[in-house]
C-alpha cells in the first residue's frame, strides 16, 4: 500500500484529499504545517509527499529543500493554489518532482502520484542489477543499477532527474523535444508543463557540475528541446 504524506494547512482540503487518497488504497498521514510534515517524514517514512506550496510558518519551498537535503530520491509532488509560472518554476527548482494546481480533481492527483511512484519504483527495483556502465568523459551512468557518478563521486538524483538523464544519454546526439521528454519522463501530455523539463534540466546540470552558459553534456536546442552530447 503506497504511503502518502500530505502537508496541507487548509483543513477542508486536507481532509478531502486524504479521504480521496485512502479510497484509492493509499496509507495517508496528514500534517497541517511544514514543521509537522518534517516530523512525520521521519516517523511515517512515506513513499511520496504531496506538499502545499503556501503554508503558515515554514514555507513550502523551505520544506521541499529540507526534504531534499534528507532524501534526494523521495518523490515530492507540489500542490499550489497559484497558477503563476514563477511560483511553479521556483518550486520545481527547490526540488519538487512534479506539481498540480489546486483545486485538483482526485483522478488527476492520483494519476500524478502513480506516475512519480512508478519512477521511484523503477529506481529501487534496479538496485543490485548487473552493471551496464556507460562512460562519457567524467560522467558514468550505470543503467542497470540506476546510479550516476561524476568524477568518481556518486551523484544523488531525484527519480525525475535520473530518468531524464537516462532518456537523453541513451541516444547521444539525438534531439528530444520538450514534449517528447515530458511524455517519456513525467508521462504528461499537456504541452504547458514543458517547464517541468526546463527546471529538471537546470537541476541536473547543477548536480553534474555543468557550466550554465556552455554545458558539456546536456545542450539546449533553441526553440525545440535538448540533446545529450558525449565528449
Task: Describe this protein's structure.
- This protein is of the alpha/beta class.
- It is 43% helix and 21% strand.
- The strands form 3 sheets. A 5-stranded parallel sheet has the order 2-1-3-4-5, sandwiched between helices.
- The longest helix is centred in the middle third of the chain and has 21 residues, at 106-126.
- It is globular, with a radius of gyration of 18 Å.
- The mean pLDDT is 86.
Helical percentage: 40-55%
Bulk shape: globular
Total E-strand runs: 12
Low-confidence stretches: none
Radius of gyration over alpha carbons?
18 Å
Structural class: alpha/beta
The CA-CA distance between the termini, in Å, is 44 Å
Residue fraction in strands:
15-25%
Overall mean confidence score, pLDDT: 86
Any descriptors?
single chain; 231 residues; alpha/beta; 5-stranded parallel beta sheet; 4-stranded antiparallel beta sheet; 8 helices; 12 strands; 43% helix
Give the SSE map:
Layout: E1 3-7, H1 11-23, E2 27-31, H2 34-44, E3 48-52, H3 60-70, E4 76-80, H4 85-93, E5 98-101, H5 106-126, E6 133-136, E7 139-142, E8 147-150, E9 153-154, H6 159-169, E10 175-177, H7 178-186, H8 194-207, E11 218-221, E12 225-228
Parallel strand pairs: 1-2, 1-3, 3-4, 4-5
Antiparallel strand pairs: 6-7, 7-8, 8-9, 10-12, 11-12
Helix pairs in contact: 2-3, 4-8, 5-6, 6-7, 6-8, 7-8
Amino acid at each position: 500500500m503506497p504511503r502518502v504524506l500530505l502537508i496541507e494547512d487548509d483543513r477542508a482540503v486536507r481532509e478531502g484529499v486524504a479521504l480521496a487518497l485512502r479510497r484509492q488504497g493509499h496509507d495517508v498521514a496528514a500534517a497541517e504545517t511544514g514543521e509537522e510534515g518534517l516530523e512525520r517524514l521521519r516517523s511515517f517514512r512515506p513513499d511520496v509527499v504531496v506538499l502545499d506550496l503556501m503554508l503558515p510558518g515554514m514555507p513550502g519551498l523551505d520544506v521541499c529543500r529540507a526534504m531534499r537535503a534528507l532524501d534526494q530520491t523521495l518523490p515530492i509532488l507540489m500542490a499550489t493554489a497559484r497558477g503563476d509560472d514563477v511560483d511553479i518554476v521556483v518550486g520545481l527548482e527547490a526540488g519538487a518532482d512534479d506539481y498540480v494546481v489546486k483545486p485538483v480533481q482526485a483522478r488527476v492527483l492520483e494519476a500524478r502520484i502513480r506516475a512519480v511512484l512508478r519512477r521511484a519504483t523503477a529506481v529501487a527495483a534496479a538496485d543490485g542489477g548487473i552493471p551496464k556502465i556507460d562512460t562519457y568523459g567524467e560522467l558514468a551512468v550505470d543503467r542497470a543499477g540506476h546510479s550516476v557518478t561524476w568524477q568518481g563521486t556518486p551523484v544523488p538524483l531525484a527519480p525525475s532527474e535520473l530518468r531524464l538523464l537516462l532518456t537523453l544519454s541513451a541516444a547521444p546526439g539525438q534531439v528530444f523535444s520538450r514534449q517528447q521528454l515530458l511524455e517519456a519522463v513525467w508521462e504528461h501530455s499537456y504541452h504547458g508543463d514543458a517547464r517541468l523539463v526546463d527546471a529538471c534540466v537546470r537541476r541536473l546540470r547543477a548536480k553534474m557540475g555543468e557550466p550554465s552558459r556552455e554545458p558539456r553534456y546536456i545542450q539546449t536546442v533553441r526553440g525545440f528541446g535538448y540533446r545529450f552530447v558525449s565528449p
